[in-house]
């Protein structure tokens, strides 16, 4: 028995990824099919550069739009992710693979869905989070907030806030847990500083 190889995770495991990191990774992998389906529109910029009718105005070739090579590369990378998260756990470089997959999914999500819109209803998000989300350890909280509040917070920030007394852990034995809405509140406060 040793510990998980994900940076910041010290869960015991016999493999290279612990059960929690496997299930976090699976959540990212689950987003891939929809992204792969939507990336071609970004690659060929179908919605942006082609006025209606231009495609058949002159037999085709003269109207070659540049393609988005970054999007194409991401599509290729994501298509190579063809296994379940659990099958990475026995691999020595599992943590690195997982890190890459998260990178690709985040980049592809940005290309397909655009940046976080300014008009996100933060109050609604906040209420939803207060009502539904239990306290979580950092490693679970970070992907959760990214997904549900569309906010990227680093584990380092949470540890700093806790060390400075801005954030109180709910559970102090073992891995500390935090209320997601409290983490969001400190995040808002810090951004406003
Ligand atoms: Zn882990």
- Number of β-strand runs: 4
Number of domains: 2
Bound molecules: zinc ion
**What is the number of helical segments per DSSP (H or I, 4+ residues)?**
9
As a whole number of angstroms, the C-alpha radius of gyration is: 20 Å
**Biggest sheet: strand arrangement:** 1-2
Describe the structure.
The chain has two domains: 2-113, no CATH class; 122-192, no CATH class. Helix content is 53%, strand content 4%. The protein has nine helices and four strands. Helix 2 runs antiparallel to helix 4 (69-80), helix 2 (32-43) crosses helix 5 and helix 4 (69-80) packs across helix 5. The longest helix is centred in the middle third of the chain and has 20 residues, at 94-113. Mean pLDDT is 84; it is low at 56-63. It binds zinc ion. The site of zinc ion (ZN) has 8 residues, from helix 1. Zinc ion binds next to helix 1.
């Amino acid at each position: 028995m040793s510990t998980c190889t994900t940076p910041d995770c010290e869960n015991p495991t016999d493999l290279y990824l612990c059960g929690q990191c496997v299930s976090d990774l699976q959540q990212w992998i689950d987003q891939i099919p929809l992204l792969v389906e939507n990336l071609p529109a970004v690659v060929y910029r179908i919605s942006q550069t082609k006025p209606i009718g231009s495609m058949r105005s002159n037999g085709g070739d003269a109207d070659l739009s540049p393609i988005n090579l970054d999007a194409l590369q991401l599509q290729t990378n994501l298509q190579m992710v063809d296994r379940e998260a659990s099958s990475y756990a026995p691999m020595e470089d599992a943590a690195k693979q997982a890190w890459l997959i998260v990178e690709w999914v985040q980049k592809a999500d940005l290309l397909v869905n655009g940046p976080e819109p300014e008009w996100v209803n933060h109050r609604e998000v906040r209420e939803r989070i207060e009502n539904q989300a239990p306290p979580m350890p950092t490693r679970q909280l970070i992907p959760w907030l990214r997904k549900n509040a569309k906010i990227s917070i680093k584990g380092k920030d949470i540890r700093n806030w806790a060390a400075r007394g801005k954030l109180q852990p709910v559970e102090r034995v073992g891995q500390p847990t935090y209320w997601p809405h409290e983490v969001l509140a400190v995040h808002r406060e810090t951004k406003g500083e």
